[in-house]
Each structure stands twice: as C-alpha cells, then as structure tokens.
C-alpha cells in the first residue's frame, strides 16, 4: 500500500501479517486535554481550522497531516470497514477496525446537524462512500483520547493543530465556537458598532432634512430682496 506513509510488505509475509505489523497501538504523545469535544468534527476542521480535507482510499494515510498542517487525509470507506468487521478472518484486526470506525463517528457525528449537511454535500461532490454518513454518534465518555490506541497519536496531533488554528476571515470567525464567551463578545461588539454607525447615519440624515427647509427659506428671502 503506497501513500505518504507506505506499508512495507515483504515477500515472506502474508498481507494480513504485513497489515498487523504496520498498525500497532501508538500512545506516545500526551494531549493537552483528555477529551475530544463535540466541536472536533471534519466540518469544523475545514470551516474553523481552515484545513483542506483530502479524501483518501489509503487507510495508511488516515488522519495524517501534511502541507504544514493545512491538509488532513481522511479514509472514507466506512462500508469497507463494516464489511471487514463481519468476516471471521478480516485483513485488519477487529480492534483496529472498531477504532477506525470510531474515528469516523467522531468526525462525522450524526447528532450534529451542520456536520450532516456538510457531509451530504461532500459525498455528492466527491463520490464518497455514503456509509460515512451512517456512523452514528459517540457518547461523552467515549470521546476521550484514552479510548484510542491505534490512532491515538495522530488524533493528538490533529487536535492540537485544530486548537492552535486561528480563524481567517468573517466566515471562519462566525463558525468558530470553540470559545463561546469570546465568540459572543466579538459579535456583540460588531453589532454595537454597526448599530452605532447606523443610528449616526440616521441622525445625520435627519439633521440634513431639518436644515434643508431653513436653507430653502433663506434662499427665497435673499432672492426676494
């Protein structure tokens, strides 16, 4: 399997053995926060974090960041993973299949309406596996790094990149709800500014309308004289 992170398959191994050797639990990195909040979705990675989502058919590249943390690869074949789960001897270990599907559920939660709408558009425009939109949702206690072993370190890196990203432009500012107090403060300030400008403009127009009749009367008096 070739990709940004190639899978080595030597001649004396079966494919299942090569896959099992490659995908080992990795829990070396420590997250800043043990929880993966509900805002950590693929849609928000794009709309808030400004990342480009690159859909891949190579599971080796799943959750991998590239282009200076501006692009994230996501394996979208949820139907394939579910099919492998049903096999007695799948290519991938069952715990790995379960966890990979769990990462998709994390990123494409069916409980998030905005995420569902965004994913439907992505499935239609990129020809993605429709099963991606039927991954269900995770309970709060499952949205923790400790429940991930195979994808733990990549999730830590991805979450850190998302947390450190700063919105660029009004669209990203509007979608960035990571700090609700800061979000409300910013948009209330914008609203106050707009209202101040609006009422200032209204008062200026009213003043002009009041001055105009006086100016007209003065002009007529001067012409009559």
Give the helices and strands, then pairings.
Blueprint: H1 15-22, H2 42-47, E1 52-56, E2 65-66, E3 71-75, H3 78-85, H4 94-107, H5 113-126, H6 152-164, H7 170-175, H8 180-224
Parallel strand pairs: 1-3
Antiparallel strand pairs: 2-3
Helix pairs in contact: 3-4
Keywords: Membrane, Transmembrane, Transmembrane helix
Transmembrane segments: 181-202
Structure explained in plain terms:
Keywords: Membrane, Transmembrane, Transmembrane helix. This protein is elongated. With 225 residues, the chain is mainly α. The protein folds into 2 domains: 15-175, no CATH class; 180-225. The mean pLDDT is 84. 21% of the residues are buried. A hairpin with a 4-residue loop joins strand 2 and strand 3 (71-75). It is built from 8 helices and 3 strands. The longest helix is centred in the last third of the chain and has 45 residues, at 180-224.
